[in-house]
Write a structure and sequence with these properties.
Helices cover 53% and strands 0% of the residues. By secondary structure, it is mainly α. Helix 5 runs parallel beside helix 7. The chain is globular, with a radius of gyration of 22 Å. The model is unreliable at 196-202 (pLDDT under 50).
């Protein structure tokens, strides 16, 4: 409704405070360009940020830095979350000659010390290395099988799908038998049966 005596304000509206996570994400996103020199002291620790959008922005920023400048740092990394995220970046942009070294580093992660989500991320990193760089050499392949096979069968279908794909790709002994038994007794995960229109998810 328009009233004749209304006066339209001309002053600029005040900007609300931007959350710290958004500021950090925008800083990281500014490095999503090749040949942009980024601050690794900002990128590296944020590969394990609790906000997944910040983690993603940090990983993509890392992908735009020459892998030769951070490969050694990745291989020496002891934090499993940072190692996982940096290995994902390396699978996309790294040197295939380092494939087995990356696989050995990932094999050394204590899977039992990870949450289900972190396990899925780790398996995704392994899967990406295989997909992008090829099946590892025999020694690295056997090391990876020894690390993963005891955890298959897992507690959820999502984990089992990932273990299945990797172990079959690595030609792990017994993987086919385990998978056939799993398929014969397959059941849906209760969480997966919840409707996506659940009000808590909207």
């Amino acid at each position: 409704v328009y009233y004749k005596d209304n006066k339209q304000g001309t002053e600029a509206l005040a900007h609300g405070d931007v959350p710290a996570e958004m500021k950090l994400r925008r800083q990281l996103e500014a490095w999503h360009v090749d040949s942009t020199k980024a601050d690794m002291n900002v990128i590296w620790p944020n590969l394990k940020h609790e906000d997944r959008f910040v983690r993603f922005a940090a990983r993509v920023a890392l992908e735009h830095q020459p892998s030769r400048t951070w490969e050694a740092k990745m291989l020496a990394e002891k934090d499993p979350v940072i190692l996982t995220q940096s290995a994902l970046a390396f699978a996309r942009r790294g040197n295939k000659a380092s494939r087995d070294a990356v696989m050995n580093a990932l094999s050394a992660v204590d899977v039992k010390g990870l949450s289900a989500g972190q396990q899925l991320d780790l398996l995704r990193a392994i899967e990406m290395v295989i997909y992008r760089m090829g099946v590892p050499g025999d020694a690295a392949r056997k090391t990876m099988i020894a690390a993963l096979d005891p955890n298959y069968l897992a507690a959820t279908n999502a984990l089992n799908r990932s273990y299945c794909k990797i172990l079959l790709a690595l030609d792990a002994p017994g993987a086919v038998d385990k998978t056939m038994k799993l398929m014969a007794n397959a059941q849906d995960d209760p969480e997966d049966e919840k409707t996506f229109t659940n009000s808590s998810d909207l």
